[in-house]
């Protein structure tokens, strides 16, 4: 029997670090599926996401930088990063599972550190206070089940050089999602979803497992980062990004 769209999407729900390893090695999956995204969320959208990341992280345009990507996965985003870094003569450190890292190229300017972060941070010890750019895109909400998010963030802050930037990107915000589904645009999107998937599912009743990420958590993380002496800002995602109506980013800068 043919798999329904809802069955297809449910394959990517409730993922954890171990399950990502299996996805990475599954030859039947497309690159964005290996990192846990169904086609409707990521298919053809990664150039737009990469542009948004570059707009937010001005350090990426600089030459001879040290860049750390925690949880790069193996879809298009790390390839865009590696192409840019090669042109800029920057060094890139990739930290993910061995299985994910095995899908990415090996070159002299690339170092691979087997995660999970921050458990693996001893291997990054020589970079304390030296990393110019840290990308943590669509990763932080997977840390929740396995480690302490604040500990993860503190370990990132320790690595950052003066003038450095961190993007904790693509954070689901359950409060923002609720505001969207209560809006006229959200109600229209819900009706379209019901018609397309032939379901009565109510997104307001179907609370996603990562709903712990909400306004209060995101605002408190920003406050704690600021209290540690870093600038931190909540940035929206543009409307043309697939989950711009429910996700947002935290940009951190060390002065
Ligand atoms: C949803 S994917 C995002 C991949 C990529 N950043 C992107 O947006 O296309 C999450 C990735 O984070 C990795 N990951 C999850 N927890 C991690 C941790 N604690 N340390 C390093 N990588 C982690 C997973 O293996 C997976 O590759």
- Number of H/I helices: 12
Question: Can you tell me the CATH topology of the domain at 5-171?
Answer: Rossmann fold
Q: Please, what is the CATH homologous superfamily of the domain at 5-171? A: Vaccinia Virus protein VP39
Mean pLDDT: 92
Strand percent estimate: 15-25%
* Terminal CA distance: 57 Å
Supply the CATH class of the domain at 5-171.
Answer: Alpha Beta
The level of helicity is 25-40%
Just name the CATH architecture of the domain at 5-171: 3-Layer(aba) Sandwich
Give the total of beta strands. 7
Describe this structure in words.
The structure is a single chain. It contains twelve helices and seven strands. Strands 3-2-1-4-5-7-6 form a seven-stranded mixed beta sheet, with helices on both faces. By secondary structure, the protein is an alpha/beta fold. It is globular. It has helices at 5-10, 17-25, 31-34, 39-42, 46-56, 76-87, 98-101, 140-143, 149-159, 174-181, 184-197, 215-227; strands spanning 66-70, 91-96, 110-114, 131-137, 160-172, 231-236, 247-253. The structure holds S-adenosylmethionine (SAM).
